[in-house]
Amino acid sequence: ETHGITFRIQIKVKELLDTDVLLKLLFHLPVSYPSTLPDISVNSDQLTRAQCMDVKDKLLEQAKKHLSEPMIHDLILWIQEHLKYVIKQSATVCNEKTILSKGPSTEDGIWVLLLHLDHMRAKAKYVKTVEKWASDLRLTGRLMFMGKIILILLQGDRSNIKEYLILQKTSKVDVDSSGKKCKEKMISVLCETKVQSQRKRFEMFEVKEYSTLEELQKEFETAGLTTLFSEFVLPLLK
């Protein structure tokens, strides 16, 4: 494919107390790999979201050392050997990181992501999952319902926006017509762009339902995203 390939690897690693940690690693290799770093997503039921993010950061640091050469096998061997140290270090600096994360956003500034979903069959579970991801990744915004239209509007750091997209596209968030868990295949990225001004950023992530188009439009206007509404939301109604 022109967008490269994506694959998932699951490995068991012995942690500090000799407990098995199941790591779910997702690698997206762009067509320019290995000259370009892979996108990496890390999930584990035994680790907190913050610890998963630390593991991901450490893997990317290692990946930079192998730029221009095949690296996935080396990265897997490295994390198998060093996971317990990464987790230990993560716990040590946890409080410091929490304080820092409340400060101004770093180099990339604030980005906006607008997604359009075709439907939600398992609505309650789906909504809960989106809320958790937004909270874990410190993203603000709205999950918006108006009639048959379902939109997800997110604001936050560029790296966290990318992490959310990976989760959204690779996790089983809904059920199919037979009730079986499935990945989201009918999602459209309407817009992904940097915000010019941070004055009107949403303070939190909320799930809201709107009974009229005017209510939905006002939500975008309040956030200073009128152009976004005109260019990407209005065409969905035609």
From TrEMBL:
<keyword id="KW-0539">Nucleus</keyword>
<dbReference type="InterPro" id="IPR038840">
    <property type="entry name" value="RWDD3"/>
</dbReference>
<dbReference type="Pfam" id="PF05773">
    <property type="entry name" value="RWD"/>
</dbReference>
<dbReference type="InterPro" id="IPR016135">
    <property type="entry name" value="UBQ-conjugating_enzyme/RWD"/>
</dbReference>
<dbReference type="GO" id="GO:0033235">
    <property type="term" value="P:positive regulation of protein sumoylation"/>
</dbReference>
<feature type="domain" description="RWD">
    <location>
        <begin position="1"/>
        <end position="86"/>
    </location>
</feature>
<dbReference type="GO" id="GO:1902073">
    <property type="term" value="P:positive regulation of hypoxia-inducible factor-1alpha signaling pathway"/>
</dbReference>
<comment type="function">
    <text>Enhancer of SUMO conjugation. Increases SUMO conjugation to proteins by promoting the: binding of E1 and E2 enzymes, thioester linkage between SUMO and ube2i/ubc9 and transfer of SUMO to specific target proteins which include hif1a, pias, nfkbia, nr3c1 and top1. Has no effect on ubiquitination.</text>
</comment>
<protein>
    <recommendedName>
        <fullName>RWD domain-containing protein 3</fullName>
    </recommendedName>
</protein>
<dbReference type="GO" id="GO:0010468">
    <property type="term" value="P:regulation of gene expression"/>
</dbReference>
<dbReference type="InterPro" id="IPR006575">
    <property type="entry name" value="RWD_dom"/>
</dbReference>
<dbReference type="GO" id="GO:0005634">
    <property type="term" value="C:nucleus"/>
</dbReference>
<keyword id="KW-0963">Cytoplasm</keyword>
<dbReference type="GO" id="GO:0033554">
    <property type="term" value="P:cellular response to stress"/>
</dbReference>
<dbReference type="GO" id="GO:0005737">
    <property type="term" value="C:cytoplasm"/>
</dbReference>
